[in-house]
Amino acid sequence: MAEFTVYGIDDAPAEAKPILEGAKKEMGMVPNLFGVMSESPNVLKGYKQLSELFTTSSLNAEEVTVVWQTINVENACHYCVPAHTAIASQMGVSDEITQALREEKPLPDKKLEALRQFTLAMVRQRGNPDKSTLNAFFEAGYQQQQVLDVILGIAMKTLSNYTNHVAETPLDEPFKPLAWTKKA
């Protein structure tokens, strides 16, 4: 397999540099995912825009985390699971929720579990969940807007998970203590 370049601010394509500089200012680092995506500045721009749209959707911090991590774990993303574990902590999401997601265990909150199950169905069934899954999602208190917001989250995570798979993106130092592998 070809080795992908992990660009930094100094050697990134010109169109990617402002995003990398913004990440450095905001996060104190340029995540390796951003460095890899810099090869195609449009992919980096798209990912950043999708991320901003998803985190300001109708879903709260716990729900955003449930969608992200459910997709990350289902897709066995070695990079995104640890990264979003750290992000969830920064967002104030409980360790109990984060650990259950990482271990593919049911969530203690019924509404969040309905969101997890719906997200899983959307990923596994390629956007074609059965009626009982969709009805359970609505019965849990979600609306059509949240269906579409989950789809937005899937679009975002597809970009990052697939990029990390093909590029074998190395974990950033801050995420290494949170390393994860999918159970067989």
Query: What general outline do the C-alpha atoms trace?
Result: globular
Percent range for helical residues?
55-70%
Strand content: under 5%
Largest sheet: none
**Separation, N- and C-terminal Cα atoms:** 24 Å
Helical stretch count? 9
Mean pLDDT, to the nearest integer, reads: 97
The poorly predicted ranges are: none
Number of strands: 0
What is the CA-atom radius of gyration, in angstroms? 16 Å
> Structural class, please?
mainly alpha
Q: How are helices and strands ordered from N to C? A: HHHHHHHHH
Protein model, in words:
The chain has 9 helices and no strands. With 184 residues, it is mainly alpha-helical.
Summarize it:
61% of the residues lie in helices and 0% in strands. It has 184 residues and is an all-alpha fold.
Question: Layout of SSEs?
Answer:
Elements: H1 17-27, H2 32-37, H3 41-55, H4 61-74, H5 80-90, H6 95-102, H7 110-124, H8 131-139, H9 144-167
Q: How would you describe this structure in keywords?
A:
184 residues; 61% helix; 0% strand; mainly alpha
